[in-house]
Design brief:
The protein has 121 residues and is mostly helical. The chain contains six helices and two strands. The protein folds into two domains: 1-82, 434 Repressor (Amino-terminal Domain); 83-121, no CATH class.
């Protein structure tokens, strides 16, 4: 029996973009389009898209649980632990790198490949 992947982050606060990317990855592994998944779960395709891009910051537990179960993920509630010092440092470095990337993108007047790709998904 193989273990079901779990939606989990060591971060103190949920990172909806991180979870959304994981959900998108597993949806694609299940060979489902956003439309197919949405129809099956009686959700809108836009809702699936918003979840996958991290635009949804509020989602019901039942809805998230059904979505995850369908694509081979599980939602798990665990005691919250404060982040370690090294976790905080890594997260701050990631945020600085992302801010620098966005600033560079804005100043150069170009859109990143990922921004263009997201519009087409």
């Amino acid at each position: 029996m193989t273990a079901t992947p779990v939606l989990y982050s060591k971060k103190y606060i949920m990172d909806f973009q991180e979870y959304g990317a994981l959900i998108r990855s597993h949806r694609k592994k299940a060979s489902l389009t956003q439309r197919q998944l949405a129809d099956e779960l009686q959700m809108s395709r836009a809702t699936i898209s918003f979840i996958e891009t991290g635009a949804v910051t509020e989602i019901g537990v039942r809805k998230l649980s059904r979505l995850c179960a369908r694509i081979g993920l599980a939602v798990q509630v665990v005691p919250q632990q404060p982040p370690s010092f090294s976790d905080v440092q890594r997260e701050q470095a990631r945020q600085r790198a992302e801010a620098l990337r966005q600033t560079t993108e804005i100043l150069s007047g170009k859109k990143s490949k990922e921004s263009k790709r997201k519009k087409h998904e």
